[in-house]
Structures are given as C-alpha cells and as structure tokens.
Amino acid sequence: MSALSPTLTLRRSRRRARVWHGVMVYALLAILLAFSLLPIYWLLATSFKTRFDIFANPGQFFPFPFTLHAYQQVLSDPHFLTYFKNSLIVNLATSLITVALALLAGYSFSRFRFRGNQALLLFILATQMFPSAVLLLSLYILFRQLHLLNTYPALIISYVTFGLPFSIWMMKGFADGVPEEIEQAAMIDGCSRMQALLRVVVPMLVPGMIAVALFSFLAGWNDLMWSLTLTSSTSMRLIPPGFILTYVGQFQTYWNQLMAGSVLVSIPTVAVFTLLQRYLVQGLTSGGVKG
Amino acid sequence: MMRERAFLIGTIFPALAVIGFVVLYPLVRSVSFSLTNYNLIFGTHSFDGLQQFSSLFSDPTFYTALLNTLLLSIGPMLAAFVLGFAQALVLNQAIRARSFFRGLALLPWVIPQVVVAYLFRFMFNQSVGVVNVVLKGLGLIAHSLPWLALPHSAPWVVGLIYAWNEVPFFMLMLLAGLQSLSGDVLEAALVDGATPVKQFFYIIVPGLRRIITISTVLIVIWNFNNFTLIWPTTHGGPVNATTTFAVWVYVQAFENFNIGYAAAIGVIWLIFLLVLTFFYLRAVSGSEQ
Amino acid sequence: MRRSVRSQVLVGLVVSLGVALTPALAASCSRTVTLRFANWAAAEAATAKEVNAAIHTFEQQNPCIKIKSVALPYNEMVNQLTVMAVGGNTPDVMEMSSGWPQVLAAQGALANLKAYAPASLLKQNFPAMLQDGTYNGQLVALPLSLTPHGFWYNKALMAKAGLNPNKPPTTIAALDHDMAVIKSKLPGVYPMGQMSDKALYTMVELWPWLQAYCPTPPMANNHLGWTKACTVKAFNWFQFLAKSGYIPIGNDIKANRQLLATNKMVFEIDGPYLRGIISSINPAYTSNAAFAKTFGVEKIPVGPSGVSRTAIDIHLIGMSKTTPHPHAAWKFIQFMVSSPADVRDFLIPEGGIPPLKSSQAAFKSLLNQPYQQAWVKEIIPEARPVPYNAAWDDAANYMIDALQSVLNGSNVKQTLGLLEDQLKRLYPSYQP
C-alpha cells in the first residue's frame, strides 16, 4: 500500500502534526463506526441470549448466561440453508448480470452523444419511480402467464431492474472520468471498440464495477415484497420472506433466532466485501488516470 | 459509422430490454388502472375518468402522506450522506486494518432490511427496549417512553432507521469515487498550497459531483418506495404520523384492495419524482458551467 | 473463495434450468391429485412439526392425494392470497384467521362449503363459530381451531400486590381497583396489556371491551354506533388506562405476551395458546403444575352492559372456488377439522380447542388442564363474532387511528365523531 492518500500527504512534512493527525483520524473513525455498530452489537448480543433474558433483563449488555442455543436452532432447520442458498444464487447472478449490462450501457452513454440521450437516461431512472405494491399485481399476472413464478429467473430478472438504472448512471459517471484518448490510442493500434473497452477501459473502471456489483447484490438481498409474491414454495424462498415465515410467527417473534440467522447470513457477505475492497483501490494504481 | 451505431445499439439494448420486460408492461397497465374504479372487494373495474384523482386531492391523508414522504425521503438522505461521506474520507486514509474497518462499516447495509426494522422496533420498545434503559441510566428521561407510539417521536425514529441503513451506501459509493480521483490532481493542489478545507471543496467535491448527484437522487427515489423498513416498525402509525406514500399505497392496494386509487397515488408519485429529479439534475449540471 | 462463488452461480443456473425442465415425478398411485394447502403453520418454528405430522397422516390414509404446503407469513397472508386470486392461482385449500373469509369471499375466491359439509358435521360445531366463517349467507370457511380470547391473570403477582389470587376481577369496577393497587404496589409491572399497534389484530382486543360497555357494540346490526354514550364511555376508559400508566402504549400482542411470561404484566386478554407461548419463553412454567400455580384464566370482566362477551378470534379452513379437485379438497378439510389423528397431533398440541363438540368430548383427557376447562366451559360459549365484512380492513384502519389518538390524549367525543363520519362513507347504508 505505497500510495499515500491525499489528506495524509498534505501533512507529511511535520511529524508532530502527523501524530496528531493520526489520533484525530482514529478518533473520528471510532465515533463514526460507533454510530453504525452499536445497533449491530445489540443484534449480536441478543443472538447469544436466552429468550427469557431478552425480555426479563432488557438492559443486559453482555449476554449472561451466554448461549449458542439460537444458533443451534437456526442451523438445525433445513429451511435456513435453503433460504440462504437461494438468496446467494439469485443475488450473485443478479450482481453479475447487472455489472455486465451497466458496464456496456454506461460506457456507451458516456461516449456517444445521440438524440434522446438525456431523455433515455431519465426514463431509465423513471422506472424506479412507481410504487412496487401496484406494479407487483400486474407483474404477478405476467409472470404466471410466462410460467416464471417460483423460478430463479423471475427473481433474478426482477432484481436486475432494481439495481440496473442506478448502475448505468454510476458506470456512465465512472466512464466519463476515463479520458477518451486512452481507448483511441488502442483503437489506432488495431483494437475494435469492444476490445478497447474490455482491455483498456475496464481495468480503470474496476473500482466502480466493484461498487456497482455490491450495490446490485444488496438491492435484491434486502427485498421482501417481490420475492414473497413471486415465489410461494418453501424450497424457492429467499432470506427475507423465509426469516419472516420462520421467526416472526403468528404467536410470537423468535428474536434471538432472527438475530442469529442474520449474523450467519451477513458474515459471508462482509467477508467477500472485505476481500473485494482491495480492488476498490486498483483503479488508482493501474494507470495514470487524469482528473 | 455503421459499426459505431451497431456498437451503441448492442450495448444499450440489452439493458433496456431487461428493464422493459419487467417494468414496462406492469407500469403501463398500472397507470391505466388509475383511470378506472378497479376494486377487488366491490368487484368494479370500469373506466372512471379522473374520479380517482379528484377524490385523492380531497383526501386529507394525501397531504399528510406527501409531507411525511418528503421529510422521510430527504431528511435521512442528508444525514446519511454527511455521515457516509465522513466515513469514506476516513476510510480512504492509510490506516491500519483498513479493509477490516471498511467491512465493519458496511454491516448496517448487509443485515437484511426486514431484520433491521425488527431490530429497531425491539430496541425502541417501551418495556423491553435497550434505548429506554440507556437513556434512563444517563438520566435523560425519567420514565420509559413508547418511542414508536408517540406521534412526535415516531417519525424521528423511523428517520434514524433510514439514515442508519443508508450510511454504508454513501460510504461505499463515495469511497469508490475517491479512489478513482487521481492523486496527481491532489498533489498539484498541494503544490498550489491548498488547505485541506479548500482541497475538499474545490477538488474532492467537484471531482465526485456526478456520483454525489446520482447517489442522492437514487436514495430519495428509494426512500419514496421504502416499505420494508417502515411497515414492521410502525405500520404508518401512530395514527398517520409515519404514513408515507409507500405505506399508503400498500394499505390501499393490499389491505383495502382499492387498486384504482392506489394506482392514482402511484401516478402522482411518478410525476412528482420525475419533475423533482429533472430539475435537480438540471440544477446540478447547470452549476457545472 | 472465488471459485466457490463461481460454482454457486453455476449451480444456480443449472438448478434454474432444471426447475423449468423437470417433469412431474411419478407417484405410486395411478392417478395422484396434488392439493396446494396455504397455511402459516408449516413454516413457523413452533408449529411446523405438528402440522406436517397431520399432513403426513392424511397422505397415508389417502394415497391418491398429495398435499403441497404453501407456507405464507401470517401477517402477509391475506394480501398474498388476494394476489394469487387475482392471478387465477388460488391454492386449493387455505388456513385462515377470523376476518379473512369475508375478505376473500367478497373477491369470489372461496367455495360455499354447504354443498359438501354433512348436517351431522355442522351440528357438532358451535353456531357462533360457524357464523364467523359465513359471508352473505354462504358458509365459506369451517372453524378449524377455537381460540377466542379469555382474561388471563398472574396469580403470583396478584398475591405480591396484596390481592387475593383466587379472586380475579370479574367486573370492570373490580379490575380498575386491582389495577390501581398493582400500579402502586408493584413498580415496573404493567397492570394490564392492551394492544394498540396499527395492525388489524388490535380489533380483537378492542371488541370484548366494547361489548362490556355496549349491549349492542358498534358495527353490529348494520349500525355504526361510534358516538353513542356507551362507546364514548368505553373510549374514556381506554384513555384512563393510558393516562394512569396501567397499559403499555403501542405494543403488539407479542410484546405483551413477553411481559406476561417474564412476570412484568398481570392481566391480559389472549387465546388458550398462551399456555405454550409462556413456557417457551420462560422455562420455569413448563410443567402443568407450575403453570397452573401462577397463571389463571377467566371470562372477560363484566362492564356496564351487564354481560361478559369475548370476541371470536379463531382459525378456519376453506376451499378455493376454482379448485379442479373439490372432492379431494373437501376430504382434506374434513380430515383437518374432525379426524382424531389431526385433533391429537396438530390441533391440541398447537394450543387451540378442537372445533367439534364431539372431539372435545372424545379428547377430554387431553383437555383437562384448568385453562382448557375454562375455555370449554365458560369462554367458548360466550364468544360472539366481530362484525367482519368485506370493507373491514379499511374500516379497521380508521378505528385503530381513533384508538391511537385517544390513547395519545385527544378529545374522545371529537375523535369518535370523526370516526363515525369516516365510516359513514364506507358504509352508506348503515344507521348511525
């Protein structure tokens, strides 16, 4: 990690200032992360408590007695793994398709000025501006006629439309930041435009692609109503409706299991991101991008 | 030239086809419902002109929902933007275990939203919620309060949930943007003797302008449609204190089965957001020149 | 890591292709009928085992009928069934909760069971419970499990407050007195639970009290009745409960159950399944003896109306009007409401009281706990339907708004006047 980040660079001349700066950065980081992480801590703590303690001692900060009972319950339910597997399949496919489509469309919107360019971009965004509760009724009928209910493709294609409009705009923005001379040089060397895009431009768009991939993964990951409506068999359910089904019952809510299940499904996502985020910086080092 | 056109069509068409397939038919059909008295309970489904719109404008809930939607779409977005930007700037520094902290910062977004809603409902509960325990411990309140059942506090709690959930989104987008900003420009600014504040306002913000614009627009649009975070926490209550368009449409479409009316709300919502987005985008691109 | 991600995607693509291509599996029976059974029990942690056991028994008894559970979340079930009905895809058999049969029947989704149900079966049902499954004179759902609400009380906490634990309040005046004592003697304990969150279910706890105040409660007999003196009195009482801090505000019934189970609430109206819920939260009450020592249940206290009437809140079962297999569907419904195996393996373990008088007699030994006896002898005979109708969901939203306003201190008469006006628009033919 040799690249020095901008703000730090400003201060490198003075050692004392740098120490002070470091302290400030960590203090700021602690405050900012505390806001995000305190509710997460409560989720985690709840998942290690007995159901009795959750209600009997609402202020109990450290789970005592500490129990893995909720985790055992969650993992011994065969449906849990089904929901998790379904969510991974659907959202990973969504993510890959969205990145591919957004990359192509975003690049073209960035490079070509054609009539209706702006209107088309606004139209793409406008498809997000209608209440899904009303859309769903018609979509259900459409998908039933096409025999797509209870299938992965129905969910994947729906979720692609969640993330795609924004992703196209994002990729256009990132592509705008890549100077045209770079791919023109490649095209003079004999590359087709597509080859130039894939070989020269894409490596510079990697940070944006990672961001878009994660965004489109999570856009579907968080959905409840669409997957609830478009699937009805237990073997096709995704995590959000599956969790509601299992832990938010008619008679009572299984708080500790709900939280334990969430912890279990969140860990892999965060782990993958932690690995992937290295590529967020790759754009910086892969070429002399001008501003 | 022909080749360029084929390339253009070949790259844009797939995206448009997917969007068109899923959204276009239901969208057109739903918009057409707004001109009918389509109601599943009363079994009516015939052309009704603009009747739905005229009852909409005379419905006091419309104005309550409009105000709530605007406040809850824009307010939490601004808060999340500021916090997310701050996180992105800090996590862009060369600090130890940076990837670990970046992963942690992402957590609020990775927890399924419906669980987030239940978690906050649980934390803000009057009798078993930790928030009351903490505030009482700090001496800030004398008695436990039913935060989500009081008309003046419920919208704030819901706003807090929105903001908390959206911070990682802004963090991620702005971090990706910061990483693609070139170090050279910042070096050059440094040579010119720019202070960090100047550097932030004259180089970083303009450099991220496009990302900032589109992320803020998107979050406002998504907040308009956010149902998952609000329904399990308050169902739009107490009374109508947190009833947004999304909640109201759901109630009309899925509880009252008044599809024509729900579609009419949807049409107003579409027009409203289109106009808002159009002028916002124009204002932002106008300041560019 | 990367490879596993890739293989996951590959598996996904293959599986999704497979779903489209796999033909129906051949079964041992020459002509198998598959029924889709929409229910919430099959996915819930608490009930999945029981309902699946019952379904398994049915399939063994009827090898030519397969049951496919369509598990839907309880809170979203009516909406999902409606979407399915609009899409021409209604499940063949549906488990329902009170109020749903009217909504679904109004959309033409439910078959009239009078064509199938023999008189002998109907005679074994309670007339008021059958009323709960009736829409416009058609029997669109049969009672599946009887779970009207009774008045639960915590004897240990009553004793701790210096009250006689064997004399629960039987009138509203006595209840007011006891709540005042509890409030002053037991800090941190809520005297009573009363749902007030914005969910349709809140009506189920409102109705018994409205009946305690009004001989003819609002909405009954095609009249609105929100501004009459007895309704105003009832809402004044709700406001008094909130102002005095006797009830937590904004809680759903699940939160109140948690408080009851952890000895932080003394009175609550709830169904017989509360027995199982309490012991699943607080293991100290697992044994029947320990439970009966602490918790008792009674009829709803009598108010100015002079009667104790609880609201019918039960589970029902119905058939799609468009099912291609009505006879198989009826066979399954009959099994679910009357077969001894189902009563023993599902209905009683789930915590309800079986719907037929004959089953109640036949399974006396499994219904011998004091709380179950309270239901069989006192609570079920006094239960009356909430006046559900097609526009109920819409109307109930206004009623809950009025309740929440009153609990937050608004003027009772004005609030009820507004409610009356709002409902007048929904029910133009109703008298004031």
Structure characterization notes:
The complex is a heterotrimer of chains A (291), B (289) and C (432). Chain A is an all-alpha fold and 291 residues long. Chain A has one domain (77-285): MetI-like (MetI-like fold). The longest helix of chain A has 34 residues, at 78-111. Helices cover 74% and strands 0% of the residues of chain A. Chain B has one domain (52-286): MetI-like (MetI-like fold). Chain B has helices at 2-33, 51-57, 60-91, 98-110, 113-123, 130-137, 154-180, 183-191, 196-207, 209-225, 231-234, 245-255, 259-286. In chain B, helix 1 (2-33) crosses helix 13, helix 3 (60-91) crosses helix 7 (154-180) and helix 3 packs antiparallel against helix 10 (209-225). In chain C, a hairpin with a 2-residue loop joins strand 4 (134-135) and strand 5 (138-139). Chain C has two domains: 30-147 and 313-385, Periplasmic binding protein-like II (D-Maltodextrin-Binding Protein, domain 2, 3-Layer(aba) Sandwich); 150-312 and 391-426, D-Maltodextrin-Binding Protein, domain 2. The longest helix of chain C is centred in the first third of the chain and has 20 residues, at 2-21. Chain C has helices spanning 2-21, 48-61, 77-86, 100-106, 119-123, 127-132, 155-160, 172-185, 202-213, 229-243, 253-261, 274-281, 288-294, 326-338, 340-350, 357-362, 370-382, 392-407, 412-426; strands spanning 33-39, 65-71, 93-97, 134-135, 138-139, 142-145, 150-154, 190-193, 265-270, 295-298, 310-312, 315-319, 383-385. Chains in contact: A-B, A-C, B-C. At the A-B interface, helix 1, helix 2, helix 5, helix 6 and helix 7 of A face helix 1, helix 3, helix 4, helix 5 and helix 6 of B.
